[in-house]
Write a structure and sequence with these properties.
Subcellular location: Cell membrane; Membrane
Structural class: alpha/beta
CATH superfamily: Ribonuclease Inhibitor
Radius of gyration: 23 Å
Keywords: Cell membrane, Glycoprotein, Leucine-rich repeat, Membrane, Repeat, Signal, Transmembrane, Transmembrane helix
Largest sheet: 10 strands, mixed
Low-confidence stretches: 4-18
Shape: elongated
Number of helices: 4
Number of domains: 1
Protein name: Leucine-rich repeat-containing N-terminal plant-type domain-containing protein
Helix content: 10-25%
Strand order of the largest sheet: 2-3-5-7-8-10-12-14-16-18
Order of helices and strands: HHEEEHEEEEEEEEEEEEEEHEE
GO cellular component, one term: plasma membrane
CATH topology: Leucine-rich repeat, LRR (right-handed beta-alpha superhelix)
CATH architecture: Alpha-Beta Horseshoe
Mean pLDDT: 93
Strand content: 15-25%
CATH class: Alpha Beta
Number of strands: 19
Family: Belongs to the RLP family.
Length: about 290
């Protein structure tokens, strides 16, 4: 009976291991994602072997119940021991493969500060209905923000700063009702800020500096009750400063430096809760209000 018991135990352990590992489809999607990237110095993908991508695959985490891949967290600047051993920051080339969109239970995608990743944000990213964090800061990603990104109604963080993104801010972005942190700094984004920007009712930080954004500051921004940090500096924004910005309850930082803003300084700005106000390098006229 002992050999039979041993065989049954081995089979049971094999079944448990299979149940607790990631689905083959998720593993295949991760390997296709990896195949589009090249990381020559740190070996961060060396651990991406074996059949179970839920355990000991660097930067990959899975949901504890479904065992589907939930998070991809790959940062090129980190205090992780793999960086300390190499005595350098990360560098990666290639592109973000659309195969990532087959990981349909993703809640977080962080592919940040690799400096050499090019290509576009996969248009299919807007189909990842569980996505809460999209952080692609510090690469060389080009192309436009997906036009239907507003479908990601769980998204709380959108950070694509320090890339080469062009085109306009899509109107659908104003449908991101859960968005708290928006960082589009230092890209090549042009056109106006969407008129209905004020629909982003959960937003606390809107960082849009260092682009080619033009047009007016939408008055609807003042309806974003939680907005604490608004940075529109180093763009081509024109028109006057909406007086309603000075009536925002928690706005602490307003940076409009280096634009084409004209008119006078609204007195409301100087009696507001704004502690860090920068209006320099514009075309403002008149006296500074008492």
């Amino acid at each position: 009976m002992k050999p039979v018991f041993t065989i049954m135990s081995a089979l049971l352990l094999a079944v448990i291991a299979t149940v607790n590992s990631c689905p083959p489809s998720d593993r295949a999607a991760l390997l296709a994602f990896k195949a589009a990237l090249h990381e020559p110095y740190l070996g961060i993908f060396d651990s991406w072997t074996g059949t179970d991508c839920c355990h000991n695959w660097y930067g990959v985490s899975c949901d504890t119940e479904s065992h589907r891949v939930a998070d991809i967290n790959l940062r090129g600047e980190s205090e992780d021991p793999i960086f300390e051993r190499a005595h350098r920051t990360g560098y990666m080339t290639g592109f973000i493969s659309p195969e990532i969109c087959k990981l349909t239970r993703l809640s977080s995608i962080t592919i940040a500060d690799w400096k050499g990743i090019t290509g576009e944000i996969p248009k299919c990213i807007s189909t990842l209905s569980f996505l809460r964090i999209l952080d692609l800061v510090g690469n060389k990603i080009s192309g436009e923000i997906p036009y239907d990104i507003g479908k990601l109604n769980r998204l709380t963080v959108l950070n694509i700063a320090d890339n080469q993104i062009s085109g306009r801010i899509p109107a659908s972005l104003t449908s991101l009702s859960s968005l708290m942190h928006l960082d589009l700094r230092n890209n090549k984004i042009s056109g106006p800020i969407p008129r209905r920007f004020g629909r982003l009712g959960m937003l606390s930080r809107a960082l849009l500096s260092g682009n080619q954004i033009s047009g007016l500051i939408p008055g609807s921004i003042s309806r974003i009750y939680r907005l604490a940090d608004l940075d529109l500096s180093m763009n081509k924004i024109s028109g006057s400063i909406p007086a309603s910005l000075g009536k925002m309850a928690v706005l602490a930082t307003l940076n409009l430096d280096c634009n084409k803003i004209s008119g006078t300084i609204p007195p409301t700005l100087l009696t507001s809760s704004i502690g860090n106000l920068n209006l320099s390098r514009n075309g403002l006229a008149g006296k500074i209000p008492d």
